[in-house]
Amino acid sequence: MAPVENQQTILNILNNLQGLGPLKDLFWTQLNYERINEPLSRRSWTETTRNALAEDPLLFAGGGQDNGFHVICARLASDNLLLGAERPVVSRLLQDHPYSLFVFSNRAQDRWHFINIKYDDDEKKRRMFRRITVGKQERLRTASERLALIDLEKMSPDLFGLSPLAIQQRHDEAFNVEAVTDEFFKQYREIFEETERNIKGLSDTGQKRLFTQKLFNRLMFIAFIQKKGWLKFRGRTDYLDALWETYKAKVKSGSPSDTHNFYSEHRSEE
Known about the structure:
The chain is an alpha+beta fold. Helix content is about 45%, strand content about 15%. Helix 4 links the parallel strand 3 and strand 4. Helix 7 packs across helix 8. The radius of gyration is 22 Å and the shape is globular.
């Protein structure tokens, strides 16, 4: 499958990721990991760590020599994805599974964290927890791009095959926060400049820049509190999408008037 097609397929899976069915398709078919499906006992765990999960974690898939790299799925007992609950579970699993990707879901299995553990380069070798979040409120284009990078078929084995360490290093690269941040700001700048060019009614360059900055600051703030689930419009928590779809429906029905647009409609409601 061509890279672009594969990424689009991964994006489609992420957009419909509820339950283990789509996850099986993602890892076993699209990313070419070997299926394992082996429950991991929590019997020797501490009570607090054990009770963080709804059930035993699952050694879901493997890759590389002797399937030495593991993909482990864990379902939290909570309806929410709690970072404080995930961390001790990961620390316990790492004792027996040093080369791993950890996939956590909430109880309903409709929100997910893909967790990579990278060790800091200093002599203390501190663990760095890096996450990709998947759910209805998330923008998943970047997530699909990063996950496409861990396709086993794209990794080049050495003479002895593909080692678990080599797979771990590729995962470390895919979850590189700096690379994701750089790409975010690259796209942010492109959209910012396009918006600035298309502003009507302001002739002064400085005024256009200031207006665009204020607009983007407001949108970023709204996006932040929307992600927290603190905003609702007509019962929907995807606040901005709900506003936009309502506005498009008004336009289709002949309202608002030609002198209004999405910004002025909602700016006037403040």
